[in-house]
Amino acid sequence: MAASEARADCSEAALAEALADVPELARLLEIDPYLKPFAQDFQRRYKRFNETLNNIGENEGGIDKFSRGYESFGVHRCADGGLYCKEWAPGAEGVFLTGDFNDWNPFSYPYKKLDYGKWELYIPPKRNKSLLVPHGSKLKVVIRSKSGEILYRISPWAKYVTREGDNVNYDWIHWDPEHPYKFKHSKPKKPRGLRIYESHVGISSYEGKIASYKHFTCNVLPRIKDLGYNCIQMMAIMEHAYYASFGYQITSFFAASSRYGTPEELKELVDTAHSMGITVLLDVVHSHASKNSEDGLNMFDGTDSCYFHSGPRGNHDLWDSRLFAYSSWEVLRFLLSNIRWWVEEYGFDGFRFDGVTSMLYHHHGMGQGFSGDYHEYFGLQVDEDALIYLMLANHLIHTLYPDSITVAEDVSGMPALCSPISQGGVGFDYRLAMAIPDKWIQFKVFILESFRQGKNINITSAMYMEFCIINAALVGDKTLAFWLMDAEMYTNMSVLTPFTPVIDRGIQLHKMIRLITHALGGEGYLNFMGNEFGHPEWLDFPRKGNNESYHYARRQFHLTDDDLLRYKFLNNFDRDMNKLEERCGWLSAPQAHVSEKHEANKIIAFERAGLLFIFNFHPSKSYTDYRVGTTCTFKIVLDTDAAEYGGHQRLDHNTDFFSEDFKHNERPYSLLVSKQISTLLTV
């Protein structure tokens, strides 16, 4: 037998074995045959996932029980009034509890050492049955390291931490209110098409300060509801000592950030959103953790290897943070319990997993272009420990909470990330289509120059992804509106002054960019708060580099409330765009049929969910009797040129557009769009 034939037989045998081990791998390979050479990778991942899941079942009684670590770890009031405490500190020589309750005597309450690096403590109740550790009192875990050093630490399972006055470090506050918040409303049904309003509580006020959960509940949730968004993604909720980290340097994973208010106030926010029919997702950061040790996870037991990899593998050089040891049994318990906690305690409906690209690869995506060659997604560069954790996390969420939603922030394009685990995939529902906003940012200079100088530029390239994100303001970067209109937004946004060319074109392009992304980008749409009305300037948090200023860490919602300013037009368009999607459901419809991408005319036309979308991106031309391929008769239902959106009213909305038995652009029928068109959506 020739060597090539032997390799082929071996390859076929390996494929058959992989298909036998992974229940629905055949379906994945049917969808994408180019993944066949990597069938053994999917097989290995699936087998490792199953082995880990089975080990959890045999040793912990199943993932349901395993993910309830928060019920025993940390500090808990017992039914008899006593206190039960438990920690995992494998590198510690001794563990103690101290705080207000014992006048900060560091050694009066020692923990008992258990197997596998665990420690536990039971403190009997007081004789008068009063609370041993009252609600609101301060606590610390005291660690005696193997070198004899005495370390004061916050429990990794702490439910509430706060910083008092000018203190540098956070304090652990025992949270055990007499009357905890009781949820009043049931969760909304899982949306058929996600329209997400990405939100940061702290910047949600127009004032130069940190806003509160209460402020967001009373003032921002009604706006979100009115705009037609059916989901909010909450950023920077998990406690982070450094505000300017945007919430991505987590110090206390089980604590809701105290800078906005109390845990009960966050529960009220989520409950109120549910009463409005709004799904609530949490930005969960399991990709890395803050390097803080006195008020973070780092060096908890006096070693660098407790929750994290030891040595260089445990450090993210770009983010200056620590990286989890995902294959560690107790790290898995901690992270899976953390997911369960936010659902059970706060009522979140799902998660957007941050930094998934960093988790998936040993190189963390640094210096990688990700050309799309499938060899980039398989092999030794993949961190399969992290990948198996993500599979376990999705399995946990979708098994216990079938209506929950998981979203992966991945810029690499990892194949099968959003495929079911039974197919060998990672199990996410959506991925963020980061390439789409990146492409608009690349286009911004060319679009502006083409409109200013009448130049032609190729703007018709588009790529299908599972979940699209648009207008997500980056820290320090301009908003989309400010890229389009820049300094003229300070002087020419009044309706009492004539349109300038910059403001006119900027407003029209802002609407068109949002609509084409919404309709053509994928199965979901995400908008960062404020960009729906063309928020000016940029986003930047208080830090030394800007003299701790809050000027750019706020959202100026009052601009859209001012009837004399043009921001209202962009806001109106966003609202009606979302409400039309709710009515017609294009996000949950099959992908669009693009019938025309005419480079010279700058016309893009496509059909989706029974709607015909027509865009004219030409900087200087409008058209009469422009033929567009289609299948039936239409009326205008959304028009960026309408007066209520700051347009020029060049289209007659009473016109019926009748299709003719005339083939055009591979469509069986076509119609003529009469009069001048700017951007037209018909149904």
From TrEMBL:
One of its GO terms (molecular function) is 1,4-alpha-glucan branching enzyme activity. InterPro entries: A-amylase/branching_C, Branching_enzy, GH, GH13_cat_dom, Glyco_hydro_13_N, Glyco_hydro_b, Ig-like_fold, Ig_E-set. GO terms for biological process: glycogen biosynthetic process. Residues 200-558 form the Glycosyl hydrolase family 13 catalytic domain. The active site is at D354, E409. Glycogen-branching enzyme participates in the glycogen biosynthetic process along with glycogenin and glycogen synthase. Generates alpha-1,6-glucosidic branches from alpha-1,4-linked glucose chains, to increase solubility of the glycogen polymer. It is an enzyme of class 2 (transferase). Belongs to the glycosyl hydrolase 13 family. GlgB subfamily. This is 1,4-alpha-glucan-branching enzyme. It comes from the Eukaryota. Keywords: Glycogen biosynthesis, Glycosyltransferase, Phosphoprotein, Transferase. Its EC number is 2.4.1.18. It comes from Ailuropoda melanoleuca (Giant panda). Pathway: Glycan biosynthesis; glycogen biosynthesis. Monomer. SUPFAM superfamilies: (Trans)glycosidases, E set domains, Glycosyl hydrolase domain. It catalyses: Transfers a segment of a (1->4)-alpha-D-glucan chain to a primary hydroxy group in a similar glucan chain. One of its GO terms (cellular component) is cytosol. The keyword Transmembrane does not apply.
